[in-house]
């Protein structure tokens, strides 16, 4: 379907120019701009669309091709329309210009994830125009607010309009980028993502006059020691099948692989690899503890009796609130009686199984685009809208395919970074990819 790449490119450029910047406030986002755009685009293919606006300007869009069998599995192609803020001073070109330069579309959202949202729309409309009838319902979901947690998007829709967007299988972002190594080439498809929990540690002391600090029970000094211990703590590593798949994806072998598979050496081995690679490997193998905000003290001459430390905790699949408390207790040690632990929020990690018909369909679609590539399951250390669907029973994968011009390092550096862009060849591959997925998925269920 090479003729569709121009349509995908044009639609992506328009979505970038809509500048649906989400800074986390309810007043930002303005996703209705892209809802208007996508509604006109899809209705031009004869599709009926539904619009939802849970807060002013925060719009999502749903289109559906009705299936022939009400009992067949439903498939949802989900892409978000919002993008993160940008500092134009770090860019070579206008971050919201959507310019096509030397075969690449430039702009905020080109990688995250307007390339998928636009290519999904083009493939979806093309199927409708051809009169294609899937066995199960096929849903296109252009969703708001992913970049700020999904409260005004996927979360709201599943709580308030569940029937409109619920599906047995959901395909979304954070998959499809490849990595070439000595043993060949791997393409990552996301099957899981870490959980996130905000924890507040309240370090307790005894108030007193600041003019007599000798021997004082100063909560601030005690908090400094708690912070030191948190920074030095090494949570128990989790070296499971996803970890092995990551090492396979990266082509890690020899002594480095042996070290990374050893619970006693994995931390130091990851740290030895430098900034981005080491951080990613650490995050994929450990619960992470990042104390990021401290509040304490009332007045210059008053010894503080309480200091609050807010900690960002990211958990691996299977690690619950009790696990978090136990690890924090180990880190704090003999100061535990002086520290209260409060869970501010607890978003558990989530994972989808691989032994599904869709996994084989994805492998086939990747193979058509990149015959030398092996598909590997991957863990996302951040968060996507997949986390809202998995508790409802949906199988969710972060899927896609990119040209060899975009490897894992390129993907990582452009994601929320300066000079975000994507090559037109990737847009062609993606548009074909969604068409193959839909048709092949239907074929798995026979006539």
Verbal overview:
By secondary structure, this protein is α+β, with helices and mostly antiparallel strands. The chain folds into 2 domains: 274 residues, Aminopeptidase; 153 residues, Alpha-Beta Plaits (2-Layer Sandwich). 35% of the residues lie in helices and 24% in strands. It has 15 helices and 19 strands. It has a 6-stranded mixed sheet with strand order 1-2-6-3-7-18, sandwiched between helices. Helix 1 crosses helix 3, helix 1 packs across helix 15 and helix 3 packs across helix 15. The longest helix has 20 residues. The two termini are 25 Å apart. The mean pLDDT is 93.
Summed up:
With 447 residues, this protein is α+β, with helices and mostly antiparallel strands. The chain contains 15 helices and 19 strands. A hairpin with a 2-residue loop joins strand 4 (100-101) and strand 5 (104-106).
Global morphology = globular
Mean pLDDT: 93
As a percent range, the share of strand residues is 15-25%
* Class based on secondary structure composition and strand pairing: alpha+beta
Report the C-alpha radius of gyration, rounded.
24 Å
Question: Which key features would you list for this structure?
Answer:
globular, alpha+beta, six-stranded mixed sheet, Alpha-Beta Plaits, 19 strands, 447 residues, 15 helices, four-stranded mixed sheet, Aminopeptidase
What's the structural blueprint in terms of helices and strands?
Blueprint: H1 5-17, H2 32-43, E1 49-55, E2 58-65, E3 75-80, E4 100-101, E5 104-106, H3 114-129, E6 138-143, H4 154-160, H5 162-165, E7 169-172, E8 178-181, E9 184-193, E10 195-204, E11 208-209, H6 219-232, H7 241-250, H8 254-260, H9 266-271, H10 275-285, E12 288-296, E13 302-303, E14 306-315, H11 321-332, E15 339-347, E16 350-351, H12 357-369, E17 373-380, H13 386-389, E18 395-398, H14 408-414, E19 421-423, H15 424-443
Parallel strand pairs: 3-6, 3-7, 7-18, 9-17
Antiparallel strand pairs: 1-2, 2-6, 4-5, 5-19, 8-9, 9-16, 10-14, 10-15, 11-13, 12-14
Helix pairs in contact: 1-3, 1-15, 3-15, 12-15
């Amino acid at each position: 379907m090479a003729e569709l790449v121009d349509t995908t490119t044009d639609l992506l450029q328009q979505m970038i120019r809509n500048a649906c910047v989400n800074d986390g406030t309810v007043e930002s986002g303005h996703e209705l701009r892209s809802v208007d755009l996508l509604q006109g685009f899809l209705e031009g293919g004869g599709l009926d669309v539904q619009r939802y606006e849970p807060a002013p300007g925060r719009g999502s869009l749903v289109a559906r091709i009705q299936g022939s069998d009400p009992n067949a599995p439903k498939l949802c192609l989900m892409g978000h329309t919002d993008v993160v803020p940008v500092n134009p001073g770090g860019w070579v070109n206008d971050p919201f210009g959507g310019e096509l330069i030397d075969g690449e579309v430039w702009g905020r959202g080109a990688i995250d994830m307007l390339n998928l949202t636009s290519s999904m729309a083009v493939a979806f409309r093309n199927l409708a125009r051809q009169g294609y009838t899937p066995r199960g319902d096929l849903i296109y979901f252009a969703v708001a607010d992913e970049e700020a947690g999904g409260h005004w998007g996927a979360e709201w829709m599943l709580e308030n309009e569940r029937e409109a967007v619920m599906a047995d299988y959901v395909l979304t972002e954070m998959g499809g980028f490849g990595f070439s190594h000595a043993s060949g080439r791997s393409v990552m498809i996301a099957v899981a993502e870490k959980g996130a929990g905000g924890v507040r540690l309240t370090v307790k002391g005894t108030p007193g006059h600041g003019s007599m600090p000798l021997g004082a029970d100063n909560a601030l000094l005690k908090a400094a020691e708690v912070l030191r211990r948190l920074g030095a703590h090494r949570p128990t590593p989790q070296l499971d099948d996803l970890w092995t798949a990551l090492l396979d994806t990266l082509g890690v072998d020899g002594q480095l692989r042996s070290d990374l598979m050893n619970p006693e050496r994995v931390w130091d081995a990851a740290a030895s690899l430098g900034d981005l690679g080491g951080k990613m490997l650490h995050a994929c193998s450990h619960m992470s503890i990042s104390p990021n905000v401290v509040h304490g003290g009332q007045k210059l001459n008053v010894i503080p009796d309480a200091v609050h430390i807010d900690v960002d905790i990211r958990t691996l699949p299977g690690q619950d609130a009790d696990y978090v408390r136990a690890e924090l207790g180990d880190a704090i040690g003999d100061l535990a009686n002086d520290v209260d632990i409060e869970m501010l929020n607890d978003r558990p990690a989530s994972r989808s199984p691989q032994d599904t018909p869709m996994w084989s369909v994805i492998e086939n679609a990747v193979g058509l685009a990149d015959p030398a590539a092996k598909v590997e399951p991957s863990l996302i250390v951040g968060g996507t809208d997949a986390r809202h669907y998995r508790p409802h029973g949906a199988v969710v994968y972060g899927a896609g395919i990119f040209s060899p011009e975009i490897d894992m390092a390129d993907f990582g550096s452009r994601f929320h970074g300066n000079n975000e862009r994507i090559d037109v060849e990737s847009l062609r591959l993606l548009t074909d990819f969604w068409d193959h997925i839909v048709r092949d998925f239907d074929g798995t269920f026979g006539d």
